[in-house]
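re the bet — no i am not wrong, look at it urself. input seq straight from the record:
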Amino acid sequence: MPATDTYHKNINILGTILLFLFLMPVWLFFIWIFFPKNKMVVAVVDKTVLTTAGQEHVSLNWVLLQEKYSKTQKDLYNHSQDYFGFFPETNKSFEIKGLERFSNQQLDKLSDDADLAYFTDTYGIYRNEWYEKGDEKERSGIIYGGMSEQDIDFLGMMKNKHKLVISEFNCLGSPTSKLVSSKFQELFGIGWTGWIGRYFDSFDTTINKEIPKWVVRNYKSQNQGKWPFTKGGIVFVHSDDRIVILEKDHDLIEEFPEIQTNEEGQKKYHLPQSFYYTFWFDIIESNNDVNHTIANFVINTNNQGTQLLAKNGIPNSFPAISLHKNQDYKFFYFSADFSDNPIELNTAYLKFIPYLRKFMYNRRDPMDRKATFWEVYQPMVTTILNDYHTEINQGRLGK
């Protein structure tokens, strides 16, 4: 074959490949269009919505869209409208539409109508970050937030009616009151140690502006005014304001918090055997008579780091994903801010896009939180919702 013919053949092949890649989103969208809707009523509670993007619950809405779960027979979920909590508006105005406005009778009606409840975040909205006056990294007065008595009443009703409840960080800690937090822990067999944590890629305060200033201030007040850290590591914060810091190389063998998954987590919920998690988490204890754990956080410390954790009553390993072990009700607790991921909601309209997930994030960067969505949240929550939808439909058909 002449060289020119080979050249033109290769050009044609390359052109076909490029055309295929260019048209792929169109094809995936049309495939998504033809899939049927599946009605499942989801009561979402999110009290930490700074913008209409709704980042604290957008991951859930991505799954709902991808699987075409609908709130009615016709209407799909809208991430900026279909939740209970804080609703941002223009010019720093807002509306609060939480469960606090519901009577007990209305909560009972909602628990009848809803198939599942998902509390994505109750941390809330604070004055500095909302009005952009002062330093958003400093603590300030709360506008709205914290799990309420009405939230607990609703969750108790959902549990008693054998409905699915999913909750995650931050629902147990501040600004939720100790009384309400205790009621949640008793209701679902979860015990909070009072500790939360997060990884930071640098503790150099001249470089990393993500470090809350109150963390630095409290640590200095507890350690003779010293802040000796420059590398990355993990900060632990207690509800009584104690600060513990483990630094890369100094206290940690592996700088990133690791989540290790057992066989059930890998096979049933399609989780990776292990993965790094670099955002906020809480440290809980799960009642083994009530729940079982399918994934654990592991803090890989050296001897010095192990001693520092032990001195402060912080375990090296603790539950990351827990679920109720019996059939009387369904409950999952994620000890991490799993719903908060910087993803593009529009990709949910592309059917089978999860099969291309390796191209959706930077696999070389442990700080890329999109990986948490594609490798952890999306497969796990999709499985949970699909299995539950099958169960409730079988129950409805059997009536």
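see?? The CA atoms of residues 153 and 182 lie 13 Å apart. told u. also The longest helix spans residues 3-34. so pay up
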